[in-house]
Amino acid sequence: MKLRIDNMTCGGCARSVTATIKELDQNAVVTIDVATKLVDVETQISQDDVIAALTEDGFPPVTA
After folding, report:
1. Which of 9, 20, 25, 32 to pair with 42, CA 20 to 30 A apart?
2. What is the pTM of this model?
3. Can you give the residue ranges of the HMA domain (predicted)?
């Protein structure tokens, strides 16, 4: 899935986003481009669950 997180502004934010996704699925593959605010996630977890977890942690995404 591809997501855009508008308030992801630094490497620390990217690490937090990755950690949140990995809490849901430790085998998830997460690729982040902070400059474009895009996150690519390969996981078996539903997109709705990923969005809910990121929103709860302060990084509300939109689908890209």
Report:
1. 9
2. 0.93
3. 1-62
1 DSSP 8-state letter: -
Which CATH number belongs to the domain containing residue 13 in this structure? 3.30.70.100
**Three-state DSSP class for residue 42:** strand
Q: How many domains does the chain have?
A: 1
Strand order in the sheet with 38-42: 29-33, 38-42, 2-4, 62-63
Give the range of the structural domain holding residue 50, as residue numbers without chain letter.
2-63
Of the candidates 60, 63, 1, 59, the one whose C-alpha atom is nearest the C-alpha of residue 30 is 1
